[in-house]
Amino acid sequence: MSTFKGTPKVAKILVVDDEPDILEIISYNLCKEGYEVKTAENGLEAISIAKDFIPDMIVLDVMMPKMDGMEACKQIRALPSLRNCFILFLTAREEEFVEVLSFQAGADDFLTKPIKPRALLSRIEAVFRRSKEDPKEDQSKQIQIGDLVIDRESYQVIQDGNVVVLARKEFELLYLLASRPGKVFTRDQILERIWGADVAVVNRTIDVHIRKLREKLGVAYITTIKGVGYKFELN
User: Fold this and answer.
1) C-beta separation of 171 from 157 below 8 A
2) In the prediction, which pLDDT does 75 show?
3) Over the stretch 59-73, which tens digit does the pLDDT of each residue have?
4) Which domains, from first to last, does the chain contain?
5) pTM of the model
């Protein structure tokens, strides 16, 4: 594990990869941009470091020894202190099913190797830029509908008095839909608002996140409008 510090910035980033060259080049470029960076060489080490470091973002390789990125992501998502951490997967695999599995594991974004440092930095800057921007339609910090409370400030969802653990993108998608009950959001609107126009994701990405939300909250809240998109309502 290594630690790098550049010009102080709010964001802390943990980079996880079993290839030393990749760790070095990513860390060097992030450090130049002023981020505080730590590195790990496998999923087990990543979890241990993340518990103390509490990064704002984890750049996580998928294929690694001891514990791969998929399993590490699942365990990180189960830790309350890391619920709001943004997880960006890196992989040399380009098959669509790998991307779908990544989102199912709790990833927020997905980038294929070989890594282009400028493209990676641009993606990371876009993530932090969007995280500071509250959508115009979503000014309230808390939404309460029926037995469901969605707290934007703490990134916490409470259903019937019980905390529901959601990945960051799951939370943002739920908050977007719930901010305008009855409004149909098209797939393009959802992709732009949640992932950003500069991020390319497969069409099934939204479907995966909707399915995960329904598994965790039940089917009563999100309605599919066939051929158009989704809306939030109480049936």
Assistant:
1) yes
2) 92
3) 999 999 899 999 999
4) 3-132 (3.40.50.2300), 142-232 (1.10.10.10)
5) 0.64
